[in-house]
Design a protein that fits this description.
This is PIF1/LRR1 pleckstrin homology domain-containing protein. InterPro entries: Leu-rich_rpt (IPR001611), Leu-rich_rpt_typical-subtyp (IPR003591), LRR_dom_sf (IPR032675), LRR_domain-containing (IPR050216), PIF1/LRR1_PH (IPR057437). The chain is 15% helix and 25% strand. It is an alpha/beta fold. A hairpin with an 8-residue loop joins β5 and β6. The relative contact order is 0.07. It binds zinc ion (ZN). The site of zinc ion has 8 residues, from loops.
């Protein structure tokens, strides 16, 4: 049997348990030696030769606490090496370890375990990890993509909708760049568990699929597309750290953006149609450190945009649900109330929830005070951005007006 994974071989005597060596791609397997005994064969693709370890009476320990994460260590007695395996297929790794255990005691291995050829292992080529297609003629239309790819860049290859679904079945991809094509829509049902970077810059996208499942996605670039609104589907990718939506036609940033994207550090909405930004971006206490806001139609005047304080039973009930953390879902209360509860904004003074009854002002703010670097066009020397602040009550509203210098104390 053989298993593709990442491997690190550590000499226990030399490294004293710690090593700066990195795990490298390779193959580990079981082979029968000339005297009919099982040996462990380890080959790193960066090396030409494979290393063989006798197994009978020569295994000190099998460390398998993280086996369900595809990690395990085989400790060999002589030489005193730790063969550390990671990013392995879990089932294959379990089979390998149970076979190593049997071989170490001299027991027979199941008939399903076949000896590998050491010569064949030494001839194995490093699997293709990266593919760059810069023109349509290089696109592997007929032969398809190697399933081992971790990084795929398809630029200026005239890709259109529907996009080749084979791209989204590459389970090992961590970076996918489809910039400079003519894609208007992504397919539904995308699930890529290792993807951390998705770049679809300079296409014709009008929306983003709401059923995309990329649980490790950190960097998403949808700049230079045709997005007319901030797609709510983006709010489901809670792992995002960098989001680039520049050069679209977005008018409004959702108020809850930093509540549902708590990891967001760099947010780019330059060259859109955004007039004001929600107070959550300007209120601090988040991971956001860089905000690109160049080339948007700025609201430069301080102004009152809403003043509705006649409290209703609905407002009181909704505020109580948030205050007392009462659980709710579509089955227990109407959908419209659920949507209201999901998208409330907090009072800029006392942090109470505001729903329908509130006071709202637009006031230019410097975000540098909360540690956010703002990029604005040169014409806006002040680096202030127009922030939409909401206040839950007349008392808080008056406080906000005073702070903004809109009424005298
Ligand atoms: Zn308040």
């Amino acid at each position: 049997m053989k298993l593709d994974c990442k491997i690190k071989i550590q000499d226990r005597q030399r490294t004293n348990g710690s090593s700066t060596l990195k795990a490298a791609k390779g193959v580990v397997g079981l082979a029968k030696s000339n005297n009919d005994e099982w040996v462990l064969v380890v080959r790193l693709f960066k090396d030409t030769n494979a290393t063989q370890y006798k197994l009978r009476d020569n295994v000190q320990a099998l460390l398998h606490r993280c086996i369900n994460n595809g990690m395990a260590t085989i400790q060999i007695k002589m030489p005193p090496h730790d063969v550390q395996l990671c990013e392995a297929n879990v089932e294959s790794l379990k089979t390998l370890l149970s076979s190593v255990r049997l071989a170490s005691t001299g027991s027979n291995l199941p008939s399903s375990i076949r000896s590998i050829s050491i010569n064949a292992v030494e001839k194995l080529q490093r699997p293709a990890l990266q593919l760059i297609v810069n023109q349509a003629i290089d696109y592997p239309t007929l032969k398809g993509f190697p399933s081992t790819l971790e990084k795929l860049i398809v630029n200026a290859a005239h890709l259109r909708t529907p996009v080749d679904r084979r791209i989204f079945t590459l389970k090992n991809l961590h970076t996918l760049d489809l910039s400079d094509n003519n894609i208007t829509e992504l397919p539904s049902g995308i699930q890529m568990n290792h993807l951390h970077t998705l770049i679809i810059r300079s296409n014709q996208l009008k929306s983003f699929p709401n059923d995309i499942k990329c649980p490790t996605l950190k960097h998403l670039d949808l700049s230079q597309n045709q997005l007319e609104k901030f797609d709510v589907a983006l709010l489901n990718i809670s792992t995002l750290e960098r989001l680039n939506l520049s050069s679209n036609k977005i008018k409004c940033i959702p108020r809850i953006i930093l509540r549902v994207l708590p990891q967001l550090q760099v947010f780019n909405v330059a060259s859109n149609l955004v007039r004001v930004i929600p107070n959550s971006i300007a209120s601090g206490g988040t991971r956001l450190h860089t905000f690109h806001y160049d080339d948007n139609p700025l609201a430069t005047e301080k102004m009152i945009t809403c003043k509705r304080f006649n409290t209703t039973l609905l407002e009181i009930a909704l505020r109580a649900v948030i205050k007392y953390r009462i659980p709710y879902d579509f089955k227990t209360i109407p959908r419209t109330l659920c949507l209201l509860l999901d998208e409330y904004e907090t009072c800029a003074h006392c942090a109470s929830a505001c729903f329908i009854r509130f006071g709202e002002i637009i006031v230019p703010k410097q975000l540098s005070a909360i540690g956010v670097t703002v990029h604005v066009t040169a014409a806006n020397q002040s680096f202030a951005v127009p922030v939409q602040e909401r206040y839950c009550s007349i008392k808080c509203f008056n406080y906000g007006l005073k702070r903004a210098g809109m009424i005298q104390m």
